[in-house]
Amino acid sequence: MGRLTARARRTVSRRRLTPCLVVLLLAQMAAVMVTTAVQQTPTIDEPVYVATATDYLRAHRLRYNPEHPPLGKLLIAAGVAVADPHYDPSYTGTQGDVGRHLLYESGNDPGRLMLWARLPVIALTLLFGLVAFAFARGVAGTAGGLVALALYAFDPDVITHGSLATLDMPATGFVLTSVWLAWKARGRPGRCLPLAGAALGAAVATKMSMLAAVPVVVGLAVVSVRRARAGVGSGFGWGAEASGLRWPTGASALCRRPAPLGIGWRDATPGLRELAAGPGPWWRTAAPGHWWRPVADGLVAAGVVVGMALAVVWAAYLAVDPRLRFSPAEPVPTLHGLRGHLVDLLPMPPAYRAGMRAQFGLESRPWQGFLFGHLYTGSRWYYLPAALLVKTPLGLLALGAAGAVTAVALRRLRPAAPYLLLPPAVLLAAAMTGTRDFGTRYALFVPVFLAVAAGCAVVPGRRWARPLAGALVLWAALSSLRTCPYYLPYANEAFGGPARTHLLLHDSNVDWGQDLGRLGDVLRERYPGERVWLVYKGAGVPSSYGIHAADPRTVPANRVHGLLVVSDSALAKARGGLARLIDSSRPVGDVGRSISLYRR
Questions:
Q1: 147 close to 136: Cβ distance less than 8 angstroms
Q2: Edge-to-edge strand order for the sheet containing 532-535?
Q3: Distances (CA, A) of 285 to 61, 236, 275, 282, 416
Q4: Using CB atoms within 10 A of its CB, is residue 63 exposed (0-12), middle (13-18) or buried (19+)?
Q5: Residue 414 CA neighbour count, 13 Å, CB half
Q6: Which residues contact 155 (CB under 8 A, 6 or more apart)?
Q7: SS3 for 566?
Q8: pLDDT tens profile 318-337
Q9: What digits encode the pLDDT tens for the residues 7-46?
Q10: Pairing of strands 368-371, 374-377
Q11: What is the sign of the dihedral through the CA atoms of 202, 401, 139 and 412?
């Protein structure tokens, strides 16, 4: 009896400790994201999104940034509404011009406006952390959930893009939520499948690249209903008894609310092992003469998910303009051939289809990329995997790989493997076909799903598994904290750390224009009164941050004397006269690990 009481006390203590750890992890994540949001000036894409969100609020029209659906910008608009900026709807120009006019030419405080625009994304990122915890906990137990949340909360890419008024983190989080709800539908399909469809629709209504997730989530939903029909819950009107499946003795109550797959397996009720390992083919689980019922269940599941997703997409556009008027500020390219016909057939609002044509137009341009010190025109199919190797903490890479292998190798975790591994694999394969090698933000779902999969690494029950997992989590956390508050140019230790990222990658991997404000502070404090020559890549206006500089590319090289300041993205592409200027200058420091300083 004493032993039982002691065990019960330990269980209660663990249950009390878990919420405290969750709150602690999310609190530190919130602190570093808010700090980052306060210190960073607008990145290249943010002014466009904030201006479009403001236009949604004030003019209620679908005019700017059609290449991205409106939901993510509507979320940003919640913060913009609190900031209440001055805005002139009659101003004409490109979406970039409108963003610059709103931030720097309308009497607004760009720092205050950007902070309020970023706060909704920060809040969403924290909520998605809870989804990652719940997903991993449902698969691998509480320890697995805490591992997943810790890796998520310390991942530099998640912190970076979770603290910006951009669309990458919201889209990734909505996909994660839809897959988690599809997983939950194994037990409660009637409740979870509509929510999974809504989350999928939210992802598609935020970024069009998430369309690649639709067939994956729909397929997983069908699998979940098949498992529910086999007895791990109730299907759409048919339970286990109706399907002809005999419940294992004593397992009925437990399976209707399945425990985490990796927890208490050896002590589970006899028969649960066979049941949770998955049902047999549909023709074996269907009652004689009712072979069509599993097929009908699958069709209903697919219809529910797709229907809810479409409803959310349409609702996002209707929320901007109930009459769905589309008057783009810039021409939308015409799309011919098979792709054009397929786009026209999509049951989406006209503005969504126009946005897809704009995306295909962007994909047809000859963009420049930079990888491992090599500048090239076009794209490299291996760019994203290579960039992810550089920018993902080694602890996350190791634990994520171990968790993925464990999920596939262990029979009791194998049902979860498709949910953990298939969505990021399909999305990554789709992203690798793109022509814009601009950063890991195009594959932000990889570290997020990898963090959830990492929770499976603590399941095997070996004595060394949990201490080793804890050590790897600590390593990832320390690696992340060392780069604080300069999360955007992060690189892991295998590639030399953040100080060497600009030698390997460019654009949103390193320098997205985020350190213009910091540059202004450095120039005032360390180089007052000096002649400054600036090559800046970003959306900010230098004079708004007290920077008065000339472009060295507009004058002969022999007239360039003083302090030469070059954004690292421009440094990566430096050729001709700019390259000669840099080669003949002496490096004297950097700002935020994204802007290099030289003396001439």
A1: yes
A2: 532-535, 563-567, 595-599, 586-591
A3: 52, 15, 12, 5, 21
A4: buried
A5: 12
A6: 392, 393, 396, 447, 448, 451, 476, 480
A7: strand
A8: 999 999 999 999 999 988 88
A9: 666 666 667 899 999 999 999 999 999 999 999 999 999 9
A10: antiparallel
A11: positive
